Amino acid sequence: MGMADVDADAPGAALPALYAQLDTLLEQISAAEPARCTDEQLLQAAATHERCARRMAVLNDAAIVEIFDREAHRLTGCTTRQMFLTHELRITDPMLRMTRMEKLARFTAMTGERRDPEYPNISDAAHRGDLGPAHVNAVIEVLAKLPHALPHDTKLAAEQTMAEISVDLTPSEIITAGGRLLAHLDPDGELTDDHDRTRRRNLWLNRQDAQKMSKLTGHLDPATRAMLEVVLNAWGAPGMNNPSDPHSPAGHPDTADADQLHEAADRDSRSSSQRHHDALAAFLRAGLDAGILGTTHRGLPATVVIKADLKDLQSRTGSGSTATGTVLPISEVIDALARDGVDPYLAVFRDHDAVPLYLGRAKRLASRGQRLASFAAPGGHACSFPGCGQPAARVEMHHAVRDWADGGRTDIDQLAPACPKHNRIVGRTPGQYTTGKVTDGPGKGRTWWRRNPAPGAAPNPEQINLLPDIKQTFIQNLDATRSEIHGPQPNPPDDIPDSILPVGDSDIERELAKLLDEFLAESGST
């Protein structure tokens, strides 16, 4: 179908037909062979492709804005814009996409008129294909730092300047150039006030990487920075709180023996950044040990709660996970359990006789034992809503089989972890969710969620928050690979040794072995 075949006069027909034509062109491009192109043609094709990709990132915003203006997204059962972007369009970062749309798109005002974009020059550059999503995000990050006390014309000139200079820069170069612009607009920082600092304050604990390390990023206001510097300078002094030195003094230097601290400082080979890390870790550990966080948080103990697989403890390999979502190597799990003053929480799944797990109608809120049992159960490490990663420390206990108001029971087999956001979207109206328990299959025992459709619409499918078992899949593939190379391998013995951990020279291992052996003896396990 060519351009002449598109009937632009037919109401609503042009846009779907054009997208259908684009889809056909993309199929043809995928089938084309770059090897048949000359060098010049390849260079031209690559440049055109990137420009088209940048344009495509913003062209659909107009259609999405029209959907929001008409509230047509409610026809899908989505009650909010973010829900529509997440579940219907499957956009990776809906909040970032909404921010970009609010700055570049033309929404309908309360008067019924289309209002101009907040950043018109950036919008024009993006629609031309000069700026892609990453470039626009970088520009928005720069312009968000403009002091609110700047005159309106100065802000407009700054936006136009960023639009002009960004078309030739990479996203990282845009950030650098934006910093120079901000320095020019407010060289002495006199226009920046508490309003700007309050608006920009944040702290992000990023996800763990493959080495289970986490990057901490954020912006601290002057008072918070001053307090943090006191902690880092004192608790991170050379020789203090060194986890690699068993004789390193712990806590504040004022409480340490002077000679011991001097000797530890001579042995200290850590960099300043490593000392700062250890200082923060020691300070947080001291706060937890002192009980300044209280006794409970969302029904869980206000301490580090860890669950680990018995086989991993036996072999001293693998990892455990905390109620806050952090993954710990088994060696650190052992260290945590063996520390003085630790208060271990062990969930027992045998006849439910260790903790009261069935409360019926006697109590609406789940007990601490139920919270711990839920966390230790498969899938209990996070909110049960499909795709949600909020850890157990931030969830509530949702009556999944039948809502409490409808006669639901506070029994462990009827409860499910749900973060406050998703716990509030359960209901009977279109756009809300209905929940239940899976009775068979790989998700047996887990909670399914189903979005209620609009009246007369087809029912939506049931979904569960079930991630693939990467560890088990890898083990199976590894066994298959070894069998192909070396032949069939003997199965490991199924018997469990009398002691969970072999008693070695380490006091930690002996204490943990004793702790786990006593626990198994009391619970009747073998």
UniProtKB/TrEMBL annotation:
Tell me the InterPro entries matching this sequence.
Answer: DUF222, HNH_nuc
Q: Write out the ranges of the annotated region (Disordered).
A: 238-257, 421-446, 483-503
**Any idea where the HNH nuclease domain is?**
369-424
* Name the UniProt record assigns to this protein: HNH nuclease domain-containing protein
The source organism is: Gordonia amarae NBRC 15530
Q: What is the lineage of its organism?
A: Bacteria, Bacillati, Actinomycetota, Actinomycetes, Mycobacteriales
